[in-house]
Amino acid sequence: MKTSTLFPALCGVAVEGAVLWDGRFNDFTSSADLNNWSWSNQVGPYQYYIHGSGTVNRYINLSPDYKNPNDTVSRQGARFTLDSTAYWNGQTMRRIELIPQTKAAINRGKVFYHFSLSRKDTNAPSVNKEHQICFFESHFTELKYGWISGEQGASNPALQWMTNQRTQWKLSEWKANVWHNFAYEIDFGANRVGLWYSEGGADLKQVVAPVSGVSTSSNGADWHLGVLELPRSGYPNTNEDYYFSGVFIEDGAITTKIGGPGESSFYILYQSIL
């Protein structure tokens, strides 16, 4: 596209949407589409390399049944599974994670990282082990579930949100069959991080005002959608399922409606010229 036609087009649609990166699985036929990505063929919205030795359907599966039913924008959600093969690169930690594949500025200015999370009683995550969920490589902000390394006692049913490894907010118990909606409010320039949250179909509300002094470092390819489970002696592994939907990153004013805005024409045009 010529610059003379591109610039007016961008000016005309930039105000229509604030989605910088869209990870809502709307364009996926199945999780096998993740296999289209490689280091030499970086296509699609996700980098898929942090997983076990099995086929992709052992670890990630897609279905309309796996999304928050209150989300009318997402066509389907994803079930992430930790099983007996979910070890990456010879590590002792079980993990299955996706990384945004984008050249958009998801690591600059003030942005909002959105996702919805749920679990079921079947293949429930263990309360006896530490689970790091939707985290950055430096762990400047993340969710944690289960017994956290160094804690007293044997178990912990709380779902906690942290900055710099410190709890800023928590649910005393992560209950089954409830959809929890999150948005990390990250100001990379000001080193501040806040949290927006709601349950079910309710609009997001700010539950933690931006916390100062957070080491908001990211290269734009180190936010991990998924889960990393730390091993713990005396507690054997069992299959665990995690459900995600409504995954996207936006800038500007936050979208509080669950599922977010429809895919903006700005996002479509921006991606088409990268």
TrEMBL record:
Gene3D superfamilies in the record: 2.60.120.1160
InterPro entries: GH131_N
Residue ranges annotated for the Glycoside hydrolase 131 catalytic N-terminal domain, each copy included: 19-253
Transmembrane intervals: none
Record-given protein name: Glycoside hydrolase 131 catalytic N-terminal domain-containing protein
